[in-house]
Design a protein that fits this description.
Order of helices and strands: EEHEHEHHEHEH
Number of strands: 6
Number of helices: 6
Helix content: 25-40%
Strand order of the largest sheet: 2-1-3-4-5-6
Shape: globular
Largest sheet: 6 strands, parallel
Structural class: alpha/beta
C-alpha cells in the first residue's frame, strides 16, 4: 500500500489521522508532537516554554526519518509511494525533512508557507500589540532558524512538491505561500482553494482538501484512482 506520513496542526498531532476522510487502501501514519501547546500564552509563559518548543520542533525531523526507516521494513508498504504531508503547523517542517531524506515520492504542504518570522509576527499581532509581535517573531526566528522553510525550498527537487493553500487564509496569508513557492524548483504546483485556514471542525473544507490532494497524487501515480 502507499503511505502518507501526516504532520498535523499544533493541537492535532497524532489525532490528525481522525480527519483523513474518504481515503481507502492507504496506510496513514501521524507522529505525535512531543510538546502540548497551552490554550493561551502570556509573554512569560511563551518565554518559559521556548526551550521545549524548540526541542520538540527540531526533533520532528529525525523522528520522521526513523518512521520512514520503520516503514521501509514493513512488507505491506510500497516504498516507491510514500507521501510527506504537512498541514498548518506541520507544513513548514516538510521542506527540511524532504531536503534531507529523499525516500518519499511526493512532498505536500497544505495551508503552509515560508518566512517563519513573517508568519510568527503576523499571527502574534492578531492578538497582541506591535512590540510583542516583533519580539516574539525575532526570538522565534532565531530559535527555529534551522527549520526555516525557505532555506530548503530548492532542495526538495527532484521530489515533486504539491502545495494547497487558501485564498482567504487568515493565519497563512497567500503571500507567504507564494514566497516559498517561488523559491522551490520544478516539479512543483500551487493550488488555491477559496477558503480560510484549515480547521478540523470544518468537515466540508477537509473533504475538499482531501479530494484535491487525491486528484494530484493520482496524476503523480502515487495513489490509484480508487484509493
Amino acid at each position: 500500500h502507499p503511505v502518507v506520513i501526516l504532520l498535523g496542526g499544533k493541537a492535532t498531532g497524532k489525532h490528525a489521522i481522525d480527519y483523513a476522510l474518504d481515503i481507502r487502501n492507504v496506510i496513514i501514519c501521524a507522529p505525535d508532537y512531543p510538546y502540548s501547546p497551552r490554550e493561551s500564552y502570556t509573554l512569560g509563559s511563551f518565554i518559559a516554554d521556548l526551550p521545549d518548543m524548540r526541542r520538540a520542533a527540531l526533533s520532528m525531523v529525525p523522528s520522521v526519518m526513523l518512521l520512514t526507516d520503520y516503514l521501509w521494513r514493513r512488507p505491506d508498504v510500497d516504498t516507491s509511494r510514500i507521501v510527506l504531508l504537512g498541514y498548518s503547523f506541520g507544513a513548514p517542517l516538510i521542506p527540511c525533512i524532504a531536503a534531507y531524506d529523499k525516500r518519499a515520492a511526493v512532498a505536500a504542504m497544505v495551508f503552509g508557507g515560508g518566512d517563519l518570522r513573517g508568519l510568527i509576527r503576523h499571527n502574534v499581532r492578531r492578538y497582541k500589540g506591535l512590540i510583542v509581535s516583533e519580539f516574539v517573531s525575532l526570538v522565534g526566528t532565531v530559535l527555529l532558524h534551522p527549520l526555516e522553510p525557505r532555506g530548503y525550498a530548492d532542495a526538495i527537487s527532484p521530489m515533486p512538491l504539491v502545495m494547497i493553500n487558501g485564498s482567504e487564509d487568515e493565519q497563512v496569508p497567500p503571500q507567504y505561500a507564494r514566497v516559498f513557492y517561488r523559491r522551490a524548483k520544478e516539479p512543483k504546483e500551487l493550488l488555491w482553494l477559496k477558503a480560510h485556514h484549515v480547521n478540523p471542525r470544518n468537515v466540508d473544507l477537509t473533504k475538499q482538501i482531501v479530494a484535491t490532494l487525491k486528484e494530484r497524487l493520482v496524476k503523480l501515480n502515487v495513489l490509484s484512482s480508487d484509493g
